[in-house]
Amino acid sequence: MARDYYGSLGVASDAGTDEIKRAYRRLARELHPDINPDPAAQERFAEVTAAYEVLSDPEKRRIVDLGGDPLGNGGGGGGGAGDFGAFGFGDIMDAFFGGTGGGGRGRGPRSRVQPGADALIRMRLTLEECSTGITRDLAVDTAVLCTECTGSGCAPGSTPTMCDICAGRGEVQSVQRSFLGQVVTSRVCPNCRGFGEVIPDPCHQCGGDGRVRSRRTVGVRIPPGVADGMRVRLANQGEVGSGGGPAGDLYVEVEEEPHELFTRDGADLHCTVKLPMTAAALGTSLPLPTLDGTEDITIEAGTQTGAVRTLRGKGMPRLRSTGRVDGYGDLMVHVEVTTPTGLTKEQTELLRQLAALRGEEQPGVGAGRNGHGLFGRLRDSFGR
To answer: What pLDDT does 88 receive?
Structure first.
């Protein structure tokens, strides 16, 4: 059974990176062997260190969310109370001494202006539309810049003020004395949420966020040759960031509808033509619909089931990474010969006469190069 890494840190499965780090720091200050020599505490310390190592790594955390265990049979990740793993040591120093653990990351208030997230919308297209390309207007529902405050989050005529709790630093500190000396701990200021300033009079339209949700129309051009699952990127058409931050991108994902005649393999198309036995034996020609009109194809006499006729350049456009068309694929016509059923007496008699003329009243099984069937070869072998 996979270990409960979220439970080890006491956080929910949707906890953010900062929340996970804060939970680890709190537990590390309680369970570190230099603070708590209890063997049970040392085991618990190794457990929470391993949990933090996993949940602070995006790839390992993805494995956990899928129900797996990224450490597998590799033990607890931390190895013991003195081994802090690849992620733990800097944060332990940060937890105890309030320093810049974790690679010398500087502290200070975070900006209220944040970049926006990307948005995704799906568009269903027919095979013909994927072949020719299409321009269409889409209705999208995303966060847009607040027109009342233009992203500042403040009501008209007001401005943000410095937080009087953290004095603009975005964090508050507390100092405790222990046998190790002074232990300084820092946490995000609960009054300003780390921004270092507060908005005394928030905008009534956006509530101080600097953005509102709105439905708008965006024009998108789908190039020829797109396939199911491909995405077209519209730069800066996604979600506007909080505080009036730059918008993310909008991705339009293609969902290709099944076609009644053709199946697709990249730029090549495939279809099946069913021929009566007589037409396959005598040969024929027939009109075949393609994506750009009708094409006459010739079936040679004696065509067998499984034969493939290739129409060059009658497939889908080949889409290059630049969005331009680089030639066309082929159309593969697969022949399937059908055997007649429900014959009349006259038709049956005619077929018997044809079989007699061709010597096919009792065909052999698996006839070889000498014309003898399977049973004929067995008879010959026993007659030697």
So the answer is: 41
